[in-house]
Amino acid sequence: MAWFKKTRKRMESATAEKPSRVPEGLWVKCPGCAQILYNKDLENNLSVCPKCAHHFRITAPERLNTLFDEGRWSEHHTGLRSNDPLRFTDTKKYRDRLKAMTEATRINDAVIVATGRLDALDVVVAVMEYAFIGGSMGVVEV
Fold it and tell me: How much is the pTM?
């Protein structure tokens, strides 16, 4: 039986009573220089910090939008999907990982092949999406 009982005082923060009037997601802290950046300014600077030139991660479709003239491009081979011919399993079945990534990223594979104009030249570009199982190259890329 304890002779003394510790009681914890609950600290109320000054901001807990008054909710912030600033909407979430308007500002981001740069991991390179710790500056607070307005999201619209960061977007206008192509996701590069104007203070220290840190490059923020962007998705493959965002990369294609910034790369091609006027952000216009056409995706090719949209029907191709990775599958699991080896029935690979580690901590999770590869088939389940593919399904989850397809739903999360809304793309069918780690690589997007697109055509468009770059500085008024017709080009074909293949871009990897890191969010799709770390850019895993499946049977589609082989």
Answer: 0.67
